[in-house]
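Page 47, continued from p. 46.
Same chain as before, 185 aa.
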Amino acid sequence: MVLTVPVEVGNSVIESNNYNAGTTIATVADMGEMIFKGKVDESEVGKLREGMELILSVGAIDTTKFKAKLEHISPKGVEENGAIQFEIKATVKLQKGEFIRAGYSANADIVLARKDNVMAIPESLLQFKDSIAFVEVETKPQVFEKRNIKTGLSDGLNIEIVSGLKKTDKIKVLNAAPAPGTEKK
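Result:
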């Protein structure tokens, strides 16, 4: 597909040689082979490996997620706004009937680890003492005991509970707003 024709009838065209890059008369692309180019912060790049799956969200197409495969991680970072960024490239896997225009902005999600059907609680319920995670569990109405727990994967909002809790345990919610009509005056 022809993407651009930067010259018009009557413009001079110079061929490329040792002293001149020449004049571009058209930009052509195979729209069936799209590439995602993005940047990853230095704190995250060590977790990535070529061949990992990416899930792309294209800003102009909010109804569809696209799959891509990580093909390249730059060996050298570049400083941008005080942080070192590494360029990544991924091949987008378009399904039949899907179309993406060249130049769209997109964000990529990379799943580093995944677990299904596990017990999880909001991270905001966790408390820590000497690097040991615990929650307060209700043993009798309004009577709570400290219970040490072992945690697993986290998505930043919810965290997996490996041991220390049962599904039926009631966990104390910290800094909860009082129920309507029960505020102290």
